[in-house]
Structures are given as C-alpha cells and as structure tokens.
Amino acid sequence: MTAARRSEAPARRKGPKRAAPKATANVRAQGQPDEAAPERAGGSGGREFRGPKAPRNESPPVKKDPRDRLRRILFLVPYAVRHPGTPVRELARRCGCSERELLEDLDFLLGVGSPPFAPDDFLDLYVEGDRVHVALHQSFSRPPRFTESEAAALAAAARALGGEGRARAVKALRDAVPRDRRASFDELVERIYAGAPPAPESVLGRLQRAIAERRVVRLGYHSASREAESERAVHPWTLAQRFGHWYLYGLDPARGRPLAFRLDRVRDCVVADEQFEPPGDADLARARLFSAPEGEPIRIRVGPAAAAWATSRPGLRLVKRLERGGAVLEVPGASAEWTTRLALSLGGDAEVIGPPAARRQFAEAIRRTLERYA
C-alpha cells in the first residue's frame, strides 16, 4: 500500500483585514509632521508616522595612539617567544586588543628589519592553524654585554628622559656590565650629561656665555695640590671633557700662562663686564690641542696593586692584561708631564713605557726625585 503524500502548505491565518493607514494631510513641505496632527493615522490599528530621520552628527574616527601598538608589540614578541603556539584569541586577550588588531600587529612586525627589509631579518613569525609562533634571530638569544662606557651613555639618556621606569632601566644597564667594571659605570653615570642645555646660571652656563662674549670670569677655585682656595681672574678660551671631568682652559693673567681648571673644583663663578682680546694663533692651537686629543697615546705599565684602580679610571684605556694581575694602559690626549705625575702618584707601582719622549721625561723625573733624597 502506497502512502499518500500530503502537500503541506503553510497555514494561513484568516480574519478581518486591517485597514490601510491613511495618509496624513498635515505634512509640511520639509517632510515634518504638523504638531497638531494625530499621533497615529487610521485609528489604533494604524502605524505611527515619524517622518524622515534627522541626519546623525557622526564624530570623526578617533586616531589611534601609536604608543598603544608599541606597548602591545613589546609585550607580544617576548610572550609569544616564551609560549609558542598560543592561540590568536588568547594572545589578543592578554594584549588587551581585538583579534583583528592582533593580526594587524603581526603583519606590522613582518616589516621589522634592516634594508631591504626581508620578513625574517630579526623575527621568524607565522600563524599556523590559529596559533601564533614567533622565533627571534640567533643574535638575540643572549642579552648584550655592554662596556661600562656604552651602558653609562644609555643610562644617562634614560635618566634624561625621565619617567617611572628610569630607575629600573639604569639598574638593568648596570647589571649588563661585567662585575669588575661596575664601579667605573657608577662613576661615569654621574659625570655624563645628556639632556637640555645647562641652566644659564650654572657654572657651565656662565662659562659658555663668557666664552661667547669674550668676558673675564672671576673664579673661586680650590687647588687640590695645595689644598687651598683662591680667587682667579681668567680669560676663558674653551671647555672640554677630559678624563671624565669638565675643564675650562684659558689664560690666567696673574701667572702669565694658560691653565686648565676643573669645573668640579670651581666654588664660585662671576662673569665680569671686562672683555679680553681673543688669543693669538699659537694660543688657539694650544687650546685646540687641549680640546681634541692628538698624537700618539702614552702607555703606562701598572702592577697588580694599582691595576684595579687604574683600569676603572675614566680616560685610561686598557691595552692588555699582564701575568700576576698587572696591565698596560693607554692615556690618549695627555701630556708626558701629566702622565708622569699620574705614574708617580701610584706609589712605585707604575711606569711610563712609551713613546720614547714620554719615557725619557718619566726617567728624568725619577732621576731628579732620587737626587733630592741622596
């Protein structure tokens, strides 16, 4: 017996027809209903006439802050490296963004590199089966080991920028320096200046103004050799950083010759109204030699007792380490006289070994000293 198949049509609801809504007569030319017109046309069963909608005042799209993307990327890359195969949704949740924004960030990262910007210069990045994989270039596998000079320069820049993370950045840079060089790092950080020009009323600011205007300065100066303070009237010629210190180089009329003055020993500085004549060619050449080290650097050999201090001193460059803890150092830009005094100050644990002229001056100083005690 064959089963008869029914045609199943959708059931229709029967009942009285609704009245079509009547057109409202009280419509202004602008398309707005008259206030006196009834709210509904065609009785309670009619539709409410609202008229055309007023255009919305759409505000322009908010421009995204590029720093937000930078913060996400700085979190995203190391997190994805430590957690390979993290799902896109989970990574977007941790970055605090949508999945679409995350994928845009990943596309942006493909352009990070060096010209001609190959996609895998610094990052090997891909999404496989909705999972993110990021691998760093092998050169990033270990944190860099800075020299104390490099780390101190970065620390000075970080301190100039300010912000909440300044102290953490300086500490991280210090930790990146080998342990035996951290004392030198601490000293350099306090001496390197990075940032805005010096304050006009600071010693450095006053000296810069005096040099530009060729004005005499009156210094309250502490002499380390005599352990005494004195007043000096100086014709300032130039400023220079040497051996980790700021120096003023200029003519001292009372002594009749140009001298160098360390700024950290200047107790007071007054710019006078009196002007001075510019120095001659010979004096300018001497000033340039002071400002820019030239010539063959002088080498000194230090023993184990003085090596730790000497190798951490700014301005002394390590050439090689010797057996039993000694070292050979270079002193670029220093005079033979200054280097001789430095070597003698180390109590017999250092000697000048070259070049020959500096070696002769050191030997002559030793000879004169021994004659005094003969």
Can you describe this structure?
This protein starts with 65 loop residues before the first helix and ends with a helix. It has 4 domains: 75 residues, Winged helix-like DNA-binding domain superfamily/Winged helix DNA-binding domain (Arc Repressor Mutant, subunit A), CATH 1.10.10.10; 44 residues, no CATH class; 74 residues, OB fold (Dihydrolipoamide Acetyltransferase, E2P), CATH 2.40.50; 75 residues, Alpha-Beta Plaits (2-Layer Sandwich), CATH 3.30.70. Helix 2 crosses helix 3. The strands form 3 sheets. A 5-stranded antiparallel sheet has the order 7-6-5-4-8. By secondary structure, the chain is an alpha+beta fold. The chain contains 11 helices and 12 strands. Strand 10 and strand 11 form a beta hairpin. 34% of the residues lie in helices and 22% in strands. The relative contact order is 0.05.
Could you give the topology of this structure?
Blueprint: H1 66-82, E1 86-87, H2 88-95, H3 99-109, E2 123-128, E3 131-136, H4 148-161, H5 166-175, H6 182-191, H7 203-213, E4 215-223, E5 228-242, E6 245-252, E7 257-262, E8 266-275, H8 281-291, E9 298-302, H9 304-311, E10 317-321, E11 327-331, H10 336-345, E12 350-354, H11 356-372
Antiparallel strand pairs: 1-3, 2-3, 4-5, 4-8, 5-6, 6-7, 9-11, 9-12, 10-11
Helix pairs in contact: 2-3, 4-5, 4-6, 10-11
